[in-house]
Amino acid sequence: MMQPTQFIEESNVKLDARHREDLAYISARIARDGADAETIIRKIRAFQIAIPSWALGTGGTRFGRFQIGGEPRNLEEKIEDIGLLHALNRSSNSISLHIPWDIPRDPAALLQLLKEYELGIDSVNSNTFQDQPGQPLSYKFGSLAHTDAGTRRQAVEHNIDCIRHGAELGAKVLTVWLADGSNFPGQQHFRRAWQRTADALSDIYREMPSDWTMLIEYKPYEPNFYSMVIPDWGTSLSLCQHLGKQAQVLVDLGHHLPNTNIEQIVARLMHFGRLGGFHFNGSQFFLIFNELVDAMQDPEVKNPPLAWMIDASHNVKDPLEDLLQSVQNILCTYARALLVDRTGLQQAQEQNDVVAAEEILRNAFSLDIRPLVAEAMRRDGGALDPASVFRTMKIREKLIQKRGRSVATGL
Ligand code: ZN
């Protein structure tokens, strides 16, 4: 394993004077508005984001991939890569797995490895959007919504397998995203497709341990362009209500039509106590975080704690650098949302003072709070500037030396 500790220390020493100056400035700046830097830093340190095992390689489009080399060849190497990210930023202590790409062969050894890197498995994702080698029935025309009972059964069994593999590694969440849908008008009966899906999900739900959650993801288009069986949050919610309390809606930022008001969706779901998790997949999300933080701080809201996960694909950047950047960006946005003047905003909203309300949001959005995030990482032993340490350590070059032009499983 590459040992980043020394590199982190050297880099932090070099940046120390400048960092202290910036931190003092932002701390004083937010104190003027009654916010306490120590409180914000404590919250940032507690905020952990799961890294997807499928995003450690170069992603791509259906037209192809531009390989970078040094990609993890197995689950052990994926854990190693995420361990490295976590050592640098101390903010990504868990992994989302994708079955069958990440079937654990030796769970005891993997648990040991996870412990060494101070990591855990947060969720398992099933995969019925493609056929696997040796699979008897095809998902060409759907999986849980398929017209054929045998194909539905096969997809149900796969999801139950995912629960079993996840349980061996301490996961507590099953994420279901279905590619089921239709490409042509008339191809699929909408109501019957929903019912078949609901029945199949019930079969899976019954097999979940009582401390597990099923997260149901939606997507309005892709891979089917006429209709998706679960295209929107309303359909996800209807399925969750059908299944029971252990089923929750998963919002993926990248799964909406342009101009969809995602912050309103998030607020609605939390109002119903039905937002279970969040896939970060995109960059414009201050207003969404503002709603999340608002609901998290409101004692009236009974939504359970959320699973925070990245779900992204990297076509042009180094995937590990991109993940470091993403975590940094998420934490900065979270910190800004924490700094919104909630009392002032509520007053402005009650008085219909549109300008004042908007200004309050703008004030928090335009603060440069990066020193608070850097300080949170430093205090946990991470780097003030994780991406620069990644480059100083020549991590990609070393991975290519060790693993060659390997290509990881993923999206
Ligand atoms: Zn997703």
Topology:
Blueprint: H1 5-31, H2 37-46, E1 51-52, E2 60-61, E3 64-65, H3 75-89, E4 94-98, H4 107-116, E5 120-125, H5 149-168, E6 173-176, E7 181-182, H6 190-205, E8 213-217, E9 227-228, H7 233-243, E10 247-252, H8 262-271, E11 275-280, H9 286-297, E12 307-310, H10 319-338, H11 342-350, H12 354-365, H13 370-379, H14 386-392, H15 395-403
Parallel strand pairs: 1-4, 4-5, 5-6, 6-8, 8-10, 10-11, 11-12
Antiparallel strand pairs: 2-3, 7-9
The structure holds zinc ion.
Ligand catalogue: zinc ion
CATH architectural arrangement of the largest domain: Alpha-Beta Barrel
**Biggest sheet, spatial arrangement of strands:** 1-4-5-6-8-10-11-12
The count of strands amounts to 12
Highest-level CATH class of the largest domain: Alpha Beta
Helix content: 40-55%
Q: What structural class do the secondary elements suggest?
A: alpha/beta
Distance N terminus to C terminus? 26 Å
Total discrete domains: 2
CATH topology of the largest domain: TIM Barrel
What string gives the helices and strands in order?
HHEEEHEHEHEEHEEHEHEHEHHHHHH
Residue runs with pLDDT of under 50 for 5 or more positions: none
Structure characterization notes:
Helices cover 48% and strands 11% of the residues. The protein has helices spanning 5-31, 37-46, 75-89, 107-116, 149-168, 190-205, 233-243, 262-271, 286-297, 319-338, 342-350, 354-365, 370-379, 386-392, 395-403, and strands at 51-52, 60-61, 64-65, 94-98, 120-125, 173-176, 181-182, 213-217, 227-228, 247-252, 275-280, 307-310. The chain has two domains: 8-46 and 342-400, no CATH class; 48-316, TIM Barrel (Alpha-Beta Barrel). Helix 9 (286-297) links the parallel strand 11 and strand 12. It is built from 15 helices and twelve strands. The strands form three sheets. An eight-stranded parallel β-sheet has the order 1-4-5-6-8-10-11-12. A two-stranded antiparallel ribbon has the order 2-3. It has a two-stranded antiparallel ribbon with strand order 7-9. It starts with a helix and ends in an 8-residue tail after the last helix. It is an alpha/beta fold. It binds zinc ion.
